[in-house]
Design a protein that fits this description.
By secondary structure, the chain is of the alpha/beta class. It has a seven-stranded mixed sheet. A two-stranded antiparallel ribbon has the order 1-2.
Amino acid sequence: MSCAGDEDDPFPVDDCLFAETFSLENQYHLFGEELKIRQVFGANLGVAAPVWEAALHLCRYFEEQSVELRGKRIIELGAGTGVVGILAARLGAAVTLTDLPLALPQLQANVSANMPSSGWPSPPPTVLPLSWGEDHKNFPTDWDLVLCADIIYLPETYPLLVETLTHLCKNGAVVYLSSKMRKEHGTPGFYEECLPSRFNVELVRRDDQQNINIYRASLRTDQ
């Protein structure tokens, strides 16, 4: 396999993806907040490096629907650059951002870079490692919201993700998932089969042009 990757497959399983390290900083105006998000391409960050369009869609959905985030206890899975969780923290949520250990330095740097001049309106965001299906039980179950932006692309992780979500949502947390619907990665199957095995799942937004869906899910009580 070459480092170039197939243009139709944005997630090549190749260690030399983004082999040369460089960084970009973008500004995003979301929900009345201005975020500066640094994306580090290289250091084997792979899919954790960029700001994916599905993450921005989820932020805009929260704004359009006036979803109340202030005062909520929120955990984000596969946070990557952290744009969704950082926005929630800027709006007054108590946020924990999680990803694999390799992604945490970039994530922490973006958290630090986006602290409001007057300080965080809630406890500062926490950045922690979380490997789905392995150490999720180290995390509490008293969340209000679980956020997931473009993390459905590796079929072998789907059962682990459902196991993790089941634990995190034991006390009634609502999950928001925003995904580009990549058939080649079995993304539709996750929402049609895997997630409904334990959750009530509702499609709340569809962008045909970008092929991005946003779902809201809650743990089923008929288990």
